[in-house]
Amino acid sequence: MDFGFSLSQSSTVNLDKTDLSLFHRVHEIEPDVAICMACGSCSATCTSSEFTGMSLRSVILDIQRGRQEEARKMLSGCMLCGKCSMVCPRGINTRRLILTLGRVFDGEDRNTRRDIRKEVRK
Ligand code: SF4
Ligand code: SF4
User: Fold this and answer.
1) Which residues contact ligand 2 via a Cβ below 6 A?
2) Whose CA is nearest to atom 4 of ligand 2?
3) Does residue 99 line the site of ligand 1, with CB under 6 A?
4) What single string gives the DSSP state of each residue in the chain?
5) What is the pLDDT of residues 64-108, one digit of tens each?
């Protein structure tokens, strides 16, 4: 029967069945990723969001929910300008977090995690 509308699919994420390995790898290098409160200040001030839809808030939420491909796609819109680092109320070094995310996505962290940690903290 056609009611003229349809119900949206549930967006519930079963964290017990979700692959969170990428989030844990990022967390090991940048523990601050866990203190993001998803306020959206970074996204609201993002230089490239208007042109690419970039939203660090969404990227962090995606990796916390195992949506790695969505996060990787969105991250490609970042210009690494660092503007978001100046507005984060949690004091997260967002630019450094983005650099770490890029390296983890590229698999560069697997053997050299300690080196990356040193490098991104420079
Ligand atoms: S560093 Fe990336 S996410 Fe942050 S404001 Fe610049 S373009 Fe946006
Ligand atoms: S501004 Fe900071 S706390 Fe707010 S969503 Fe962005 S990274 Fe998270």
Assistant:
1) 36-42, 56-57, 88-90, 92, 94
2) 39
3) no
4) ---S--PPPP----GGGS--HHHHHHHHH-GGGGG-----HHHHH-SSHHHH---HHHHHHHHHTT-HHHHHHHHTT-----GGGGT-TT---HHHHHHHHHHHHTTTHHHHHHHHHHHHT-
5) 999 999 999 999 999 999 999 999 999 999 999 999 999 999 887
